[in-house]
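I had to read the description of the data format several times before I understood it. The format is easy to grasp once an entry is in front of the reader. For illustration, here is how one protein appears when written out as sequence plus structure tokens:
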Amino acid sequence: MKLSNNPEIRRFLAIILIFTFLLCTASAFFSAEAAVFTFILGVFLITAFLIFTKKRYDRINNLTETIDRILHGADDTYIKSYSEGELSVLESDVQKMLVRLRDQKDILEKEKTFLADSIADISHQLRTPLTSINLILSLLHSSDVTEERKGELMRELSVLISRTEYLVSVLLKISRLDAGTVQFERKNTALGELIRKSAEPVMIPMDIKNQKLIIDTKDITLNCDYLWCLEAFGNILKNCTEHTPENGTVTVTAEDTPIYTEIVISDTGKGFDENDIPHIFERFYKGKNSSKESFGIGLNLSKMIISAHNGTIKARNAHSGGAEFVIRFYKQVV
């Protein structure tokens, strides 16, 4: 950007020159010295104006070049301004915009990496049961397989299909929560009824292992979305039953305070490995004591649902041994 290319500057200079010429002409009627003084003053003012304007244009040029570099992806651009004035305010705002754009770029890069990793994990998780299903189907078409063996293969096929359906269902729910498209329908629900209903899918495995489920939630009610909280508590109870040995116990207790409702779900298993605790709720994370059938997404979904209900969940080892989940649903936004 050149100073002489600006029509506004040219017009302003023309006005100053005409005004100076008129002043010099008027001063000549009084004395030659007055005319010379007026001329010198006019030249000084014009020079000062040009110097000041050029400095402003240089700053505007630098700012324009900086914005151009930002638009072309430069990450090492920084705007320094220690003076005051309109341009300094503009430079400060551009710097704030630059910082925000960098933060957003970092967030997008992390989300892109997370999405790529998630897709890879999902592909791996789905590939394993699908490969087994294809293998079983190939065996079922073989004429060498006995009827007894076919029965075993059909039962195994049924289990694999159920696991695949569960995986797809959970992934769809996670994607809905990630996208923010879920509208929770909150209503007051008896906590004991909610826990018992959540435990229904695991009651048969618990009976087979002779496990006990103890529920002590008093008469506490919880304001929540019934179906989504069934999913959240169901995944936690499923995790506890899977890691509890035969004749073990899973216990659910609750306490209500003016600030929050606390629910503690514990088991009598081996507990968590200390290195796993910080990662328990991470998506696709499988701890040291995880079963081979685990996908590593159930607890992640539970945390997402509880967090969306203005709640928190943490995992720890109980003092008496075993794993313990502490869930708090806050009654006000925290």
Q: What stands out?
A: The chain has a mean pLDDT of 81. The beta strands are 186-190, 212-216, 221-225, 249-256, 260-267, 311-317, 323-330. The two ends are 52 Å apart (CA to CA).
